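pasting for ref
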Amino acid sequence: MPVPGSEHFSGDLYEPVISPGNITRVVIATPEMIADIAADRADCDATMAGQPGLNGQGNPGGDAGSSRQPDLRPTGELLATGLAHGRRSRDMYRLALRLWRQHGVTPQGAPLPQTVELTCFRVWQATAQHPEPFGWPEALECIRSARRFVQDQEQKQRALASRASEWLAAR
């Protein structure tokens, strides 16, 4: 649920709605709700990245022509079987997103980056390296990119929560 003062992904700002009778309807969102909304949007963005017709980048190495990317398998399953060929970079990024969100990222850095990187390393070890290799440097870049994304999203969430609190306090 958007709150007044928050920004729609199109760039437009949400404003309070005054209904007939001069009644202002406001949804009071908690920081947890805002975090959940932003995480859902980020998941959607990550899922839709590279899909044909959505951003013009096509869907390299994935399920060509598919309108929806398959869900990322559970971490325990990935640890046992590794990442599927043709989706390794994208799924490593999505796994890292999942783990960074689970373990948290602070402005100073993750409290336990070894946990995320070690889990991803173990998944990488279980990943088949044929017909072409999926090198650890490539996997590590996916992990670092996901970390930067989550840090940026958390910063935006804090700013949004602050704006919403200021707006509500002014009412």
